[in-house]
Every structure is written in C-alpha cells, then in structure tokens.
Amino acid sequence: MEILVCVRRVPDTSENEIELNSAGNDIERDDLVYSINEPDNYAVEEALQIVARVGGNVTVATVGGEDDEEILRREMAMGANHGVLITDEAFGGSDGKGIATILRAFVQKGSYDLILTGVQAEDGGAQVGGMLAALLDYPFASLVNSIEVLDGKKLKIGREIEGGNKEISEIDLPCVLSIQTGINEPRYVGMKGIRQVASISIPTFGVSKLGLDPSAVGEAAAKVKRVDYFIPALGKGAEILHGSREENIDKVLELVAAKGGLK
Amino acid sequence: MARIFAYIAHKGGVVDDSAFELAAAARKIDPTASPTAILAGWGADLDAACKNLSASYPEIWKIANEGLAYPNAELIRKGLTKVLPNNSIVLVAHEHFGIDLAPGLSIKLNSAFVSDVLDIAGVENASLNVVRQEFGGQVSAHVQCDISSGAVITIRPGAFKMQNGAPIHGTVIDKSADVGALTAGRRYLETVVAEAGDVDITKHNILVSIGRGIQEKENVAIAQELADALGAAVGCSRPVVDAKWMEKSRQVGSSGKTVKPKVYLACGISGAFQHLAGIKGSPFLIAINKNPKAPIFQVADVGIVDDLLEFLPELTAKVHEMRTVAAK
C-alpha cells in the first residue's frame, strides 16, 4: 500500500508557554520549541504499522519552508521511506483551502492508496484532510482511532465519537483519513536515527513542478485570514493561593472537606 | 446578508442541544436573521425531531432518505450540496459529526470555512470577524472570513447561550425529492460502546484528575495514593490515555466520561475545552499547575501554581496525619 502522510511543524505546547508578541499581532515566536504536530506523528506511526503488515511505502510531505525539513527527517528516522518538502513563495498566507489545493496537486503527481493527516494542528482548524478529500472526490473519515486493511480495495476503520464510543465503518480506497491521538504508541526516535537520515536530500516541489495556478493559492486566494491574537478578558478566574506550600495544602484540605464532604 | 442555515444533529427523535446554540450564533451574525434549520435522516425519528424543532425555528428543511438512518457525513454533504442555495451561510456544531462534514461541504459549496468558532466579533459588508482559540486555549485569535460566496462555520458547543424565545409554529418543508438517491464510499457498520472499566469515575464526590503534568506512568501512583486517602477516584485528561498511562474509562471529556463530582482536583491539566466539556454540575474546581498561564486557571475556583509531583505527596501525607490525629 502506498501511503502519503501530510504533516506539519508547530510550536510544541507541552514545551512552551504561548505568549503574545509586543505588537499583539502574533504569538512570540523567538525561542519557541517546534516539533511535529502531535496527531501527525500518530498518523506516521499508523502508516508504518500498516506497511509493516501489508507492504508498501510511506511518504511524508509538508507544505512549508526550509525549517520544516527537520520534521521530515524525524519521521524518516522513524521509518518513513520518503520525505517531500512542498515549498514556494506563492504558498505564503494560504488558508486551509489553499493548503488542501496545494496537497491535491501533489497527490495527483503520484499514486497513493491512502492519505493520512493528523486530526488537527495546534493552531489549525481540523480542516485540511476533509477539504483534500472533497477536492479529490475521495471518501473521508475524521477522528480515526483504528484501521484494519480488509483487502486492496477497502479498510475497516473506527472513529472516536461521543462518550468514548467507537463508530465502525467500511471505507473504499483511495481515501483520506484524519488520525486521532492515542491510535497507537509512536516509536521513539533517537539521535542515532536522526543522524542516519541527516544527509539524505529531500526533494522539493513548487508551483511550476506541481502545475499549480499561483492565483489559486497563497494570500490572494485566501478567504480566511487571521487578523490578530489576543488574550481573552477572563471571567472571574481562579483565586490563586499565594501562601507557602504548607499553607496551600492546609487550605486545599479545608476546601475539599467543606465542598466535598470528606469522610 | 446571505441566508443562514443551521444543520441540526438529532438522535432517537430528539434534537441536539446545539440546535438552540446555532440559532443564537445565527442571530449574533445577523440580528434580523431568521435562520433555517436543516435536518437529515429517515423515518419516524426524523419526523419527531423536525416536529420538536418547529417551536424554535420558523422554517425547517427536511431531507428524508433511507440511506441516512445513520448520519453519514458524505451522504449528507451530497444532499446538502443539492439543496442549499448559492452563497448560504451554514452553521454546524463542532463535534465529531461536524468535523466529518463541514470542511468537505465548504469545498463543494465553494465557500469559506472557519472551524470551532467561539464568538462573532462583527460583520462588515461581506466580511465576518470571528473569535477562535489556538494552542489549547492559551491564546485567542480574531479571524476574518470573506463570506461573499457563503461560508461553512462550525460552532463550539456551549459557546453561544441558548435563548428562550416565545414558542413559534415553524413550517417543515420536505426537500427529499431534490436530493434523490445517494451513494458513499464509506458505509456505517456498527457502534462499539465504551468499556465500563474497573472504576466508575462518574460515581465519586471527589475526583483527583491528572493531565500531561503527571509526566510518566510511574507517577500515576502519586495521584492514586491521594485519591485513596481522600476516598476519591482518579480521573484523567486525554494525553494520559493517549500515552497509555490510564485506561480510556478514566478519561473525563467530550470523548470520554461526563462527571458530576462535588470537588474536582485538576492536577497538571491545561484545561482544553474538550476536557472541560466532561465536567458538569459546577463542582468546586481546584487547579494545580506549574504554568501560571494554563487555561485551567480561567475556570477554576482556586488555583495553586506548584509542581504537582511535590505538592500531591505532601497533601497525601497531610491527609494521613489529619486522620491519625482524628483517630486519637
């Protein structure tokens, strides 16, 4: 099975406190730790496990710039066979549909049975996978938390729905699936693995190689634009206890006893 | 202003609460709007859902199709694409079905798409300004959306307050004939109900709930020891289940359990809305987190900025000490 996984590099919220810059028009991006978007990493692991069972290849692709090469290499160190950087000045300012349009052009240059994305990016809208599927007229499923290959033509998939229940469906290939976190346990990538793929050259694709109309992507085509970032005015917010740890512990116990009926 | 539609989810003849929230969102986009509800489904369930919605929406479009007895987003997308007028604004609840339906619908309608909207900041000509959250709720963003060729917008559950207007007598209009036969590349087979698990976290007055801040599986014991001392249960947020540190049955949130304790101790939980959606009944919420900017502090009653790996064991020791004193 030929599998394409679309990935993104994002600020890692488990490593950073996200703050506004002084102008208030963006987040403070200096000194941010970036990593692969977490659900995308689960998607790559799932692709590797499918290929281990039924054979095939895994390609990871990202729309971005030179800095994004690091996550492609990281996923190649995990075992992905190919990494592709889709990059062009004309792509800057693309909205979700713009990114999906770029990815469609890339998909049509190849031959993939299955396309995976992460369910959502930290700063995204859970949108590109569903849009890409609609542009390609492929079936789509979001929030996928299990995949079983039935034969060369279809999969049996589970989707995470309310209350921890699971919706099971059959889906025809080729299709696009957005992968939920927790579907598997992504393998660890060590420094040694990263070093082994450090010198592999990563092919790039731009507007002309993809045969894209530049006016269909980028800022000019975007119907959706982020204007600014802000920290919302809070409701009353928590009463923060500023005592010593011992005082805070006493206070918490008192509150738990009063409000929870501690026995 | 373009016509506004609200796609309404329903089950067993009962419409989802989001039906009323979508109506509130529509009125915030256009105070003069008379939003139209669209429901798809089959049989008596669909008719009952349409009927009970007619007290709140002046016009209800019904799409009845045997293939829609179970809501399949691809089929419903095809149906909606056939019946929706050009340049419509379509509102959908941002939950698992909306996430399935909405992005592809915007492509087929050739309209703009914005997801998980919390508020409407303003409308000017063909530009709609909405509020979203990013980075797990640590920051919010204003997003401008060109609605000149319509828009599909998913609305965060609970973000818009239901309004109780006087009941009206809405009309149900049957659009089924415009839709015709539908086929999809994805076919529903069955729903597997979540396993009950060893501990029922919905039955406890006090919950000690842990998030990513617990850092590793071995540390879950720290929370369990506190819970044992307090006569409480240990719950958790999604990252803890994803990492396989606790069973899915312990997860609080929209994709896990809905709990109604009296006291909720959120330990190392950032406070993503999917997690908060599982906490009902307004418990007294105490948050312990190293990050003073964690969104959980916006909703907690009391907050402590501290390292839970040190705070919780000391708290447990104090509970034991208190009980020893009380026993004497």
**SS summary, helix count of chain A:** 8
**Total beta strand runs of chain A:** 13
Helix tally of chain B? 10
The portion of residues assigned to helices of chain B is 25-40%
According to CATH, the homologous superfamily of the largest domain in chain B is HUPs
| Fraction of residues in β-strands of chain A | 25-35%
Strand order, largest beta sheet of chain B: 7-11-6-1-4-5-12
Percent in helix of chain A: 25-40%
Output the radius of gyration of chain A: 22 Å
Question: What's the Cα radius of gyration of chain B?
Answer: 23 Å
Trace the largest sheet of chain A across and list its strands: 9-8-7-10-6-1-4-5-11
CATH class of the largest domain in chain B: Alpha Beta
The major sheet of chain B is characterized as: 7 strands, parallel
> So, the CATH homologous superfamily of chain A?
HUPs
Biggest interface reads: A-B, 83 and 97 residues
Indicate the CATH architecture of the largest domain in chain B: 3-Layer(aba) Sandwich
Strand tally of chain B: 18
The CA-CA distance between the termini of chain A, in Å, is: 58 Å
How is the main sheet of chain A built?
A: 9 strands, mixed
Helices, strands, pairings?
The complex is a heterodimer of chains A (263) and B (328).
Chain A lengths: L1 E5 L2 E3 L22 E3 L1 H17 L2 E7 L5 H10 L3 E5 L9 H14 L4 E5 L9 H9 L3 E10 L4 E7 L5 E7 L2 E5 L11 H6 L7 E2 L1 H4 L7 H4 L2 E7 L8 E2 L4 H16 L3
Parallel strand pairs in A: 1-4, 1-6, 4-5, 5-11, 6-10, 7-10
Antiparallel strand pairs in A: 2-3, 7-8, 8-9
Helix pairs in contact in A: 3-4
Chain B lengths: L3 E4 L2 E2 L2 E2 L2 H12 L6 E6 L1 H11 L5 E6 L8 H11 L5 E5 L2 H14 L2 E6 L1 E6 L2 E8 L4 E8 L4 E5 L15 E4 L1 H4 L6 E7 L13 E5 L9 H11 L2 E4 L1 H5 L20 E5 L5 H4 L7 E6 L6 H4 L2 E4 L2 H20 L1
Parallel strand pairs in B: 1-4, 1-6, 4-5, 5-12, 6-11, 7-11, 14-15, 14-16, 16-17, 17-18
Antiparallel strand pairs in B: 2-3, 8-9, 9-10
Helix pairs in contact in B: 3-4, 6-10
